[in-house]
Design a protein that fits this description.
Layout (H helix, E strand, L loop, with lengths): L1 E4 L2 H16 L7 H4 L11 E3 L1 H27 L1 H7 L5 H13 L5 E8 L5 E7 L5 H10 L9 H10 L5 E5 L4 H16 L4 E4 L11 E5 L9 H10 L2 E3 L10 H7 L4 H19 L4 E2 L5 E4 L2 E4 H5 L3 H4 L2 E5 L12 E3 L5 H16 L5 E5 L5 E8 L4 E18 L2 E12 L11 E7 L1
Parallel strand pairs: 2-18, 5-6, 5-7, 7-8
Antiparallel strand pairs: 1-16, 3-4, 3-16, 9-14, 10-11, 12-13, 12-14, 15-16, 16-17, 17-18
Helix pairs in contact: 3-4, 3-11, 6-8
């Protein structure tokens, strides 16, 4: 149910927010040309309690440990490499091999979170090549209140102050939306006296000492091999390291597998292992075994195929990571949104993909975030609407002196349970209560 208000102060604030974002070149698509922000504008940031911020800091600490442990598991265990390398072209694996030899570790990562009814968080996934930093940096500048985190822009500046001569952000030509976003980040850095270049590899060269942000999809790495080799040789910092296996949601499946439980517990310690057991969404990999072990029950492949409508609603099938269709919500199929025939097609495709060694899918329980009231400006009605909406919380961390630093939080809301930044979604920064 939507409530409607003509509160002039909130309307004026939304108009000012849009103007301030456009002045910083924040947007995507044709929004800057049209003079409109391409998402719904809310007048206020989303408030987090001190306890929630403490939890976000703890999540960042153990997320970094999990990512480092995942690198170790991949290097130590041939059976894990066979699974996580599935479907990846040889040039991609070669870049990954070079990065592993160099001992590169993540300097920036994002944790995608669901807000639970008790105010705590569940971890949906980790991203080492996070989009959104430019948008979040802009949101942090134009909204009122004390921001959660050190500040995205300040963390980029610290990264450059520690030795990078300039920041080079490489985007593929197919990623125009991302180019728009990073142009906003580039604009703000240059405004504050820092050097930043953002664009396509065809138009840029890597300079000795660059901090290099590789936003090129792995499927384009062969095309840009010479450019990436320059980056490896000349850049001071690589964001992210070319570890494609860390993109795989199948890592959550390996974490939840009973076979690897002792390994994870020994590597993370009991505190970290128990904390992540509470936070990571339960995950099972579609593989040759034909059964799915989730913490509270087990399903066979046949049982998964024959689920009733109400039973299907409890699950989702997700592309694990290395696929054109895995970005955003495109690689997610919710059992509650498809009929029996379509569900069976998805499940069979997921199993066949593993059998043919062309890619990975995972099965997860369907968990919705807590619904909360959100205000946003309805342009058609020229007023503020209030609506109960699902939340998606994006927490960004930079790593300095081997410690993760919470840089900022972006909160998206939608009236749909799959929440990704689109034209019908609000996007605001996290602020302290």
């Amino acid at each position: 149910m939507k409530n409607f208000s003509l509160a002039e102060d909130q309307i004026d604030r939304c108009l000012q927010i849009e103007s301030d974002l456009l002045a910083r070149k924040i947007g995507f698509g044709d929004s800057l040309l049209k003079g409109r922000i391409p998402w719904l504008i809310s007048p206020d940031g989303y408030q987090f309690s001190q306890a929630q911020v403490q939890e976000l800091n703890k999540i960042g600490f153990w997320a970094k440990r999990f990512l480092e442990a995942s690198v170790k598991l991949y290097q130590q265990e041939p059976s894990v490499r066979r699974i996580l390398d599935m479907g990846k072209p040889a040039p991609v694996l070669e870049f990954q091999k070079q990065a592993l030899k160099g001992g590169q570790l993540p300097r920036l990562f994002r944790v995608d979170l669901l807000l639970m009814p008790d105010g705590t968080f569940k971890v949906g996934e980790f991203s080492l090549k996070p989009g959104g930093t430019g948008i979040t940096a802009g949101l942090q500048e134009v909204y009122r209140g004390k921001m959660v985190g050190r500040g995205i822009l300040d963390c980029y500046k610290r990264l450059l102050d520690e030795g990078g001569k300039s920041l080079l952000i490489a985007v593929a030509q197919e990623k125009n939306r991302s180019l728009n976003e990073f142009e906003g980040l580039s604009f703000m850095l240059k405004r504050d006296g820092y050097q930043c270049r953002c664009g396509y590899p065809e138009d840029n060269k890597v300079i000795d000492g660059d901090a290099f942000y590789n936003y090129l999809p792995p499927r384009t790495w062969l095309q840009y091999r010479d450019f990436l080799n320059q980056a490896v040789q000349r850049s001071k910092t690589m964001i992210p390291p070319t570890y494609v296996f860390l993109k795989e949601k199948a890592l959550f499946g390996l974490f939840w597998e009973a076979h690897w439980e002792k390994w994870w517990a020994a590597e993370l310690g009991q505190e970290g292992f128990c904390f992540l057991k509470d936070k990571l969404i339960e995950t099972a990999i579609f593989d040759h075994r034909g059964k799915f072990s989730l913490p509270d029950h087990e399903l066979s492949f046949k049982e998964l195929l024959e689920l009733t409508t109400s039973q299907r609603a409890r699950y989702l099938v997700k592309l694990s990571g290395f696929s054109h269709g895995s970005s955003g919500a495109k690689g997610v199929v919710l059992g509650k949104e498809v009929g029996r025939t379509n569900w069976q097609q998805v499940v069979k495709q997921a199993k066949e993909s593993f059998s043919r060694q062309i890619g990975l899918y995972v099965l997860q329980p369907f968990i919705t975030s807590q619904k909360v009231p959100v205000n946003w400006l309805d342009w058609n009605e020229s007023g503020i609407k209030t609506e109960q909406r699902y939340l998606r919380v994006l927490a960004y961390y930079f790593v300095f002196d081997d410690m993760p630093v919470l840089a900022g939080v972006e909160v998206n809301s939608s009236d749909r349970s799959k929440v990704h930044l689109q034209t019908d979604v609000t996007s605001v920064p996290g602020i302290l209560t």
